[in-house]
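tool_call predict_complex ligand=zinc ion
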Amino acid sequence: MLTYETFCGGIFETNCYVISAPEGWILFDAPDGACEWLESRHVDLKLLLLTHGHIDHVQDVAKIKKRFGCRIGCHPVTAPMISDREFFRNFGFDLEIEPAEPDFLIEETPVRNFLGLELQVLEVPGHCPGSLCFFSRQDKLLIGGDVLFADGVGRWDLPHGDGELLFRGIKTKLFPLGDDVTVLPGHGPPTTIGAERRTNPFVR
Ligand SMILES: [Zn+2]
Ligand SMILES: [Zn+2]
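tool_result ok
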């Protein structure tokens, strides 16, 4: 069974998860404070994967890259969100990030090997273009980003958001993964596909 640890950081209380893969540590998302947290846990990070490019999930990317020299993987549309200092300013937000370049790009695929860990990659847009969910079939574990939450879904009123697209993606891509799958979301506590399929008011 995969073990993971959770850190929640930044003003939006954004979760990130670190997982021990056969060939090293993988961090999913990089909220404010994640770099110090990894240091305090003595995690020698090898790889950073991003679920999507919203600022609260990428705030520490450049810092982490500098500190650990890890590789960074993200979706092609997430790339400018981390490499263009002005990206969020262009949307009218008074925000800047320290830019960083991804080392490789990730798109939807039935199986891809990350440091010896086989993950299915699902693309579920609607909250944010290029939103990725990472699924370990063997461990029945989904690192879902801001797609599906306990009793909620990602907001769809941000630039390029689309509620119908989001709901459809959850129903057609995530629900079939199985009721016994644990979901590790970008905000809030873990949940399961089964619990959300039964009671989540947005996707019934
Ligand atoms: Zn988001
Ligand atoms: Zn978020």
